[in-house]
Amino acid sequence: MGILLLWPLVSYALFFLFPRDVLKWLIREDGLMETLTAVALLSTAVVFLRLYLSGGRCTPAHPLATHRNGFILCLAVVFFIGAGEEVSWGQRLFNLRTPELMENFNLQKEINIHNLAIFSQHTVDGEAKQGFGRWFTVSRMFSLFWFSYCFLIPAIARAAPRFKASMLQRNFPLVPLWLGLLFVLNYLISKAAEGVIPAGRMHRLTEVKECNFAVLFLVVAVWFVRHSRPAVPLTSRS
Questions:
Q1: pTM above 0.90, yes or no
Q2: What does the alpha-carbon distance between residue 198 and residue 194 come to, in Å, rounded to a whole number?
Q3: Residues of the chain with pLDDT under 50
């Protein structure tokens, strides 16, 4: 756990210690940081898919229970989409042209969903969204996802044994709370850093934060693999 605790601390320390030119090279479009984020997300999807295909512990208490865990499959799909979105589905790698329909509504004229005007943090005119529109963005929805799944639900499970038992009975993959706290730590450090950096470097700080989240999700997926139980065939259940 010590190494995992140091990861976000070291990553943000390097953000401040690296010369500006080096930092710009690391966090440029399709640079090392963005590539690492995409690789971590894709690896997370692969690990979850492997876990799903290998079967997982389940009980007949849930009407949708099978020898494979549907929650795990959903996570695999989510992180596969995340990896594709991170690199605009290989648009620059394969020199793909943005479809005209998507180009008209994508703020960066790319093949991805998160830069569509409806999901972006800014309007077509470049102004920051206000009110409810601020929450209907990919960034906010991702924040709600990691906070709810990796911290809030584990915290409730820790405080309420009946809730935890109910989740486990339905094969819900509970993230250990100590791992969830690392997600919170990454978020808090990024927020603290935002107060001391120039506005022009905010995008680079966001890239570091997103990369840290991607690596932490990969750690979560590996943790599930190491602590998973083999599936019990339906015919052997009484």
A1: no
A2: 8
A3: 58-65, 232-238
